[in-house]
Specification:
Its EC number is 3.1.21.7. Keywords: Cytoplasm, DNA damage, DNA repair, Endonuclease, Hydrolase, Magnesium, Metal-binding, Nuclease. It comes from Skermanella stibiiresistens SB22. By secondary structure, this protein is α+β, with helices and mostly antiparallel strands. The protein has a single domain, classed as archaeoglobus fulgidus dsm 4304 fold. The protein is built from five helices and eight strands, in the order H-E-E-E-H-E-H-E-E-E-E-H-H. Strands 3-2-1-4-5-8-7-6 form an eight-stranded mixed β-sheet, with helices on both faces. Helix 2 packs across helix 3. The termini are far apart. The model has no long low-confidence stretch (mean pLDDT about 90).
């Protein structure tokens, strides 16, 4: 299976240099005209302010198959990333990384295809069990699937539902958790993902 072959290329430890440009990517599907819209939000790692944005569409060529959503999204996302003047130093992806039935979610797929360090940040759990983390911001709980650590349930805002952080590519799980918390000073979602989602909906 393609996912299982590509999974062997995932680097689950820290393998990146200084982070000067952070980008998030998001995609939405327009079934009426068979388009995949992809948005990129690039932010400054210190101020967390938007520095660049991209919005484009590509024809949707892969059918919807549960567990294989990344094959629909990645072509448009890669095209959007290619329009940035320079590649980002880190991708924050709205989706699963290793916390996936075949250990190859969207964050892994996008990281391997582009070669960029990537973190998976999902709003809902796909696989795994975890104990509910504390109610305070920064509380976390490991998530296991088939006795394997696949991610962390992380509370990014007091009293809100946790996010599910997992390795995408070239970023370790502890580092991924630290970065997601740093990028989420006010809202539940990390700032780059929040901005990319807003941009992706501008196609009307």
């Amino acid at each position: 299976m393609v996912q299982e072959r590509m999974r062997g290329q995932v680097v689950p430890h820290d393998d990146f240099g200084p982070v000067r440009r952070i980008a998030a990517v998001d995609a939405h599907f327009s079934e009426s005209d068979n388009k995949t819209w992809a948005a990129v939000a690039e932010i400054d790692p210190v101020t967390l302010e938007l520095t660049r944005s991209v919005l484009l569409w590509r024809p949707t060529v892969f059918p919807y198959v549960p567990g294989f959503l990344s094959f629909r999204e990645v072509p448009a996302m890669v095209a959007a990333l290619s329009l940035l003047p320079e590649p980002p130093d880190l991708l924050v992806v709205d989706g699963q990384g290793l916390a996936h039935p075949r250990r190859f979610g969207l964050a892994c797929h996008l990281g391997v295809v582009t070669g960029l360090p990537a973190i998976g940040v999902a709003k809902s759990r796909l696989v795994g069990r975890y104990d509910e983390p504390g109610r305070e911001r920064g509380s976390s709980s490991p998530m296991f699937h088939r006795r394997e650590l696949v991610g962390v349930a992380l509370r990014t805002r007091d009293g809100t539902n946790p996010l599910f952080v997992s390795v995408g590519h070239r970023v370790s799980l502890p580092t991924a958790v630290d970065l997601v918390l740093r990028f989420s000073p006010k809202w539940r979602l990390p700032e780059p993902i929040r901005l990319a989602d807003a941009i992706s909906r501008m196609h009307g």
